[in-house]
Structure formats: structure tokens, C-alpha cells
Amino acid sequence: MTTPPPTAELTADEARRIALKAQGFLGTPDRRAGVRGVLRHLGAVQLDTISVLARSHELIPYARLGAVGRTTVENAYWKDTHAFEYWSHAACILPIEEWPHFAFRRRAYRARPQWHHHLPDGAYDQVIKQLRTEGPLTATELGGAKKTSEWWDWSGTKVAVERALMYGEVVCVERRGWKRVYDLAERAVPADLLHDELDDTECLRRLVRLAGQSLGVGTRADIADYHRLKGEQFDQVIADSGLVPVTVAGWSKPAWADPAALETVPRGRHRTTLLSPFDSLIWERARTERLFGFTHRLEAYVPKPKRVHGYFAMPVLSGGRLVGRVDPAREGRTLVARQVSLDGPKAVHGVAQALIEAAGWVGCTDVRVERVDAPGLREPLTRELARALA
User: Fold this and answer.
1) Which terminus in the chain has less CB density within 10 A, N or C?
2) How far is residue 167's CA from residue 185's CA, in Å, rounded to a whole number?
3) Which 3 state secondary structure label does DSSP give 45?
4) Model pTM?
5) Helix/strand/coil for 61
6) Rounded distance, CA 47 to CA 339, Å?
């Protein structure tokens, strides 16, 4: 791919500010748009099974808007057909208007020659028939999700309904007790969107443009990774995506930016908050290191003796920087910081502020710090917390 001459040269600080603005962390958020506004601004909100303070899809709007009620979050996603769940960066909640732009992926699944799970004869038709007759159902209500207690040992029913989800004949319309609730796409997706079958090029062009807008500025790998596109798919449409080539000081790869993000230097109030490890600001590890000089890794699936920062270490964003990590837990009305990592004394105030706000959001009245990686910063942190809680 031949990259055209850059239209702008950005400093590393400008790129970081553009990224923070694009992700909703710099400037005053549009609270009137609420959670639905956050979803549309980001284009995708990742789901994950882990719940410590809250599940990741709840933490995403909290990180940008502050103390949003958890019921408010769920209703914003699922009520009135405002969103659907599908495979984007991972399993993600997506704005319903983007349904047509994932037609390329649905077609790819339909053409897929091999699958990990065997689909029993008749199971697919039976699932479709049952949903048509009975309405929205979980896999359990359809007849059972698993053959045995092993997470990977899906029943024929589960295989069938997940295949139908990938094909686009079935849609996940909400999560109930963390179980997917399935319904027929013909009922769940507005007709004007359901039948708007765009070709692959139109789909890819839209998703590349959306990813560029949601990131503000990014490399080929950054932008393609946002919706898990292939590099060659990015190459196919980047020239017509509306994104413009730029250079960023210190970045070894070419980059592209949303032209609207280049119009003014991003300014405003920086958000101070705990970030979900699945937050789209820090999805791509190499990008996070490039923007913030911060190495981020989820250690929930790392054996406990090998963990460095903790099971669900949440990066702390303060002043437009990633200044530390907190591995949280809850014990009754106490938020427990099992392990805290601080990027020097200047990080103490921001980490304390993030902990206090998070505690209030989940209904905790106290904060207890167990371990601090720099022992000399433990007392200043506990003192700052005590002052805020007094």
C-alpha cells in the first residue's frame, strides 16, 4: 500500500490529546446523550464475563460520565432496540444503526467451511422454530446450553443458536443474568436496517471511518484492530474512508486521523477515573505504550503466582496520563485496593480521587488499601483517602 503525503504533523502530546478527546476523556461530556451517546461515540462497547466492581460494559460509560446507575446503563443499551450484540473487537454491544455494516462478517460466517462445534441435524431449524413460536429466549430456555458442566461442551441447541447469531438470523437483544437472550432478527432489527444489505466494500469503508473517528488518530494496525479487520481490508478502503494521513512524532508507522479532530487543539477538563482493562482507550497494547508509555496487560488469566499487578488491575487515568493501577475488590461496604501501583508521588492524588469516586458509585462508604508497590507512598495515599472520606 502506498501512503499519500501527510496532511499534518502531530507531536506525541497532540496525538495523545486527540485520542483522549475522541474516546470521551477530555472536555465536558454530553450528559444529555448519556450512555447511548457514549455507545455511539465509541462505536462498540466490549462485553466480558468478569465482574469485580461491575462488568466491563458498565465500567465504560461510568469512566466517561461518572456515577451512572447500573439499571440506567442496561436500559440504555437494550431498551427500544437501541443496540445489538455481535462480534466486533470481541463480543461487543453495537449501535443498532450499524447492523447493515456487519453484513460482510455475517456473509463470511455463512461461507465458513469448518467449525469447532458440530451442528446436529435438525437443531438449527428447531431453534428458529422455537424462537418464532415462543419469542425471545435464553439458551437454557431453548433446551440447555451445555451437555456437561464444562464451559466449552455446548449442547446442540447452543451450537445452533450461536451459529444463527453469527449468520444474522438471530440477534442477542439483551443479557439477562449474563445469559444471552436471543430473538429472530426479523423481529429485533428495524426493517429498514435488516434489509439494507451493503456490499463488503461499503461495510469496510464505514467501519474504518468509524474506528478512525473513535480513535482520533491511529496507525493501520490501530484502526484495523478496532473492529478486528484484516490489514488488507483496511488497505482496500482507507483511501475512500474520509480519514487523512498524518505523521506523529515518535511513531515509526504511518498514521491516519479524523479530519474533524485536527481542526482545533483538544482542550478542556481531563477525566480522573479507573479504567476497565477492556476499555477501548487501551484495547491495543502497542498503541497504549505509544500514547502513554504504559504497559497494560490483563492478568486474570495468568496463574496467581505469576501476576505482577493483580487479577483485575484497572489502569488509573488522571490528567490525561495513565498514572497507576488498582486491583480492586469489595468486602461489604468497603472497596478494597488489594494492590496499588503508583507512577511516583504525583500520582497519589489522582489514584485517591479515582478510588473515592468508584467506591461511591458501587455503594461503598470506605476504602482500604492492602498493598502499595512503592512502600513510601502508602502513607500519603491512605492519608489522602482519609481526608476525602472524612
Assistant:
1) C
2) 10
3) strand
4) 0.93
5) helix
6) 24
